[in-house]
Amino acid sequence: MYAQHTNVALEVQEASLTLGGRRVLQPLSLRVDAGERLAIVGPNGAGKSSLLQMLSARLKPDAGRVLLFGQDIARTPPQQRATHMAVLHQDELPSRHLSVSDYVALGRIPHGSDRARDVHAAIVRFGLAALAGRRMDQLSGGQRRLAALARAVAQAPRVLLLDEPTNHLDLRTRIDVLDSLATLGITVVAVLHELSLAARFAQRVLVLHRGRAVALDTPDAAFNPDLVRQVFRMNVCRAPAAGGAPALIFDVPADGRPFDVQEEGLP
Q: What does pTM read for this prediction?
């Protein structure tokens, strides 16, 4: 059984990963506290999705291990794991012939109960109440993504792993979704491409570059101008925001040319 009272939800202990003969993740150690929101960011090919799949036990590390509430996740039966962790992969393909309500109810399978109120609450949370009876193949790509999020939340997990949860959504809906996830009070680890949304959502940010962790800190510290230039070839500035910390704004260099990236400072 997983520990019910622990401050550490996920722990990666010197884990590395090789796929197709190529090292996609260098040895990495990481602790994610219970209730923490962590964003994983980095350029294409940095290892973000691979790390999330390792955290979910979809991929097994070459060395090291991943712990979920103190237990080696690779040695835990999937059914037991699913009562504590829900995962939304980038390549999730919802069954097209189920209704939205029936699809979201799949999240209750690990618990052996449909808990209609949990299913309904998840559907309402993501604005799908009017579509609950509609078939999945009648939805837009964005609506299917919201249904997939509702399915994961209906699972009532202690840890939620999300790979690009805002795919296919318009900007306002992306913000609403991440703000809603932030109110769940559970551990959320999300791979995000939009750095401004990651800064808004996360309490800490893990920056990956060529399979290495080059920053793990608060958004303000992780997205320092030098690192943003080196890793993302972008500028970052801080702008006043109503009722909160300054917003981080990311943009390309004014001359429109890529930076001459100097990587000596990166590990």
A: 0.91
